[in-house]
Amino acid sequence: MHPMKFLKPALSRNLVKEDIPDALAVSYEELGSDYLSEKDFSETIESDSAFCKAVTYDGQFAGFAICQVFGPDNVDDMLRLPDSPERDYFLSKDRIGLFDSTAIRKDLQGLGIGTEIAMACYDKFVSKRTDVICAMAWKRVYGTINVEGVLRKMGMTPYLEILGYWNRMVDSRGGHDCPVCGRPCKCSAVLYRREM
User: Fold this and answer.
1) Where are the alpha helices (DSSP H) in the chain?
2) Region for residue 108 given its phi and psi (left: phi exceeds 0; alpha: psi -120 to 50; beta: otherwise)
3) What is the rounded CA–CA span in Å between residue 12 and residue 24?
């Protein structure tokens, strides 16, 4: 049985080059001005190990999810975990699926769109025979976690919180330009995972 139930009439598909301006606009608003670039989306479209799902709602571009599939040799580059049992766990897996970056337009949040795109990504991870799926969820300075509901619907469990994580994920001088707390970002990341 699928881990989530379809909630709203949103349609997911593979991101195409023509979607990149809309995806960048959503990324800037939801993830910050320095988190993703046009190059990041272009490289994902052309990649064998990554994929990007776009979602539309009522005919409008509503959001995206970039995902990666990798092995233990790329754990440190992809996850940037501290030396911990969680890092050791991922180093022991052959195929890891990562919900790398997900963003839904602010005016369309709460309509089940995040669930729809997560379902599409989950199905892709199943087809790619991943051993485990994971996500680094954004825990805002005021305590809420951006995709917690969707991750829990997928059967994912939180394992580790990392303070200052988003500042290490960008090359910006002075740290990540967070849309919630500014630069440097004071939010943290929460690692979620689920065995497949």
Assistant:
1) 20-31, 38-45, 75-79, 85-91, 113-127, 148-153, 165-168
2) alpha
3) 17
β-pair partners for 97:
69, 133
Contacts of 142 (CB under 8 A, 6+ apart): 180
Confidence (pLDDT) at 34: 92
Which of the four pLDDT bands, split at 50, 70 and 90, describes residue 1? Answer: very low
**The dihedral of CA 193, 63, 44, 29: what is its sign?**
negative
pLDDT, tens digit, for every residue of 147-171? 898 999 889 999 999 999 999 888 8
Query: Residue 100 domain-assigned?
Result: yes
Does the reported pTM lie above 0.85? yes
Q: Which of 136, 134, 157, 143 is nearest to 187 (CA)?
A: 143
The total domain count for the chain is 1
In a domain, 159, yes or no: yes
Let me know if residue 27 belongs to a domain.
yes
Cα separation, 24 vs 22, whole angstroms: 5
> Is-contact 38 45, C-beta < 8 A?
no
Helix (H) or strand (E) run with residue 46 in it:
none
Q: What is the CATH number of the domain that holds 159?
A: 3.40.630.30
Q: For 73-120, how does the pLDDT look when each residue is reduced to its tens digit (9 = 90+)?
A: 999 999 999 999 999 999 999 999 999 999 999 999 988 888 889 989
